[in-house]
Design a protein that fits this description.
The chain is mainly alpha-helical. It is built from eight helices and four strands; from the N terminus they run E-H-E-H-E-E-H-H-H-H-H-H. It has two domains: 73 residues, 3-Layer(aba) Sandwich (Glutaredoxin); 113 residues, Up-down Bundle (Glutathione S-transferase Yfyf (Class Pi), Chain A, domain 2). A four-stranded mixed beta sheet has the order 2-1-3-4, covered by helices on one side. Helix 6 packs across helix 7. The longest helix is centred in the middle third of the chain and has 28 residues.
């Protein structure tokens, strides 16, 4: 399998970490959305990452579809999205908050990357405010859970860590470990696991 996209994308990184954690071999093809869009569009005409080229030549797009395929490959006992209904609902709720927060953070980053004369400060402020609300919601959720970091991960730990690391690197003024201590602990532990070290966040 071949994973298209760079690890600066939290959604690409989430897929890569999941593949590494489940010991599923793959090749990373870190195409840039900025300089290599025509190449990306060969795999996904929408010009988005991640895309995963399967061994049979088919290509999956969208991280949720890719992760669902990965879980199907390994079966319910190893799936990173639990099959048990109550637990599954909790994980999906956390994933929804985390991905929503990521989207707001990425919107703010994109706004500040526009030419200065085209930037709208109110829009960036709104994105930052919504990101902070999302972080608080995530912290409240994870404080009430038991975590299995280092034993058997689920998408809860993976997306929580990837969200936190992305914010720390891309919008550091939004992050305060004293305000989000549980997220800080989870992130510190997970980022030291082999699956995360093998797919490091990379802005180069």
């Amino acid at each position: 399998m071949v994973l298209i996209g760079r690890y600066i994308s939290p959604f690409v990184r989430r897929v890569a970490v999941s593949l590494h954690y489940l010991d599923i071999p793959f090749e990373s093809k870190p195409l840039s959305l900025i300089s290599e869009m025509p190449d990306i569009e060969q795999h996904n005409p929408l010009g988005r990452v991640p895309a995963l080229i399967l061994d049979d030549g088919r290509t999956l797009i969208d991280s949720a579809a890719i992760l669902d395929h990965i879980d199907a490959l390994v079966g319910p006992d190893r799936a990173l999205l639990p099959m048990n209904a109550p637990t599954r609902q909790l994980v999906l709720q956390l994933v929804a908050y985390a991905t929503g927060t990521l989207e707001r953070v990425m919107n703010a980053v994109a706004e500040e990357n526009r030419p200065v004369e085209k930037q709208i400060a109110e829009r960036t402020s709104r994105f930052d405010r919504q990101s902070a609300v999302g972080l608080s919601a995530l912290e409240n959720i994870v404080q009430s859970w038991e975590w299995s970091v280092g034993e058997r991960l689920t998408q809860s730990e993976i997306i929580s860590t990837i969200t936190t690391t992305y914010i720390q690197r891309m919008r550091p003024h939004l992050w305060d470990g004293a305000i989000y201590p549980t997220l800080a602990t989870i992130t510190s532990k997970c980022e030291n696991l082999p699956a995360f070290r093998d797919a490091p966040f990379d802005v180069s």
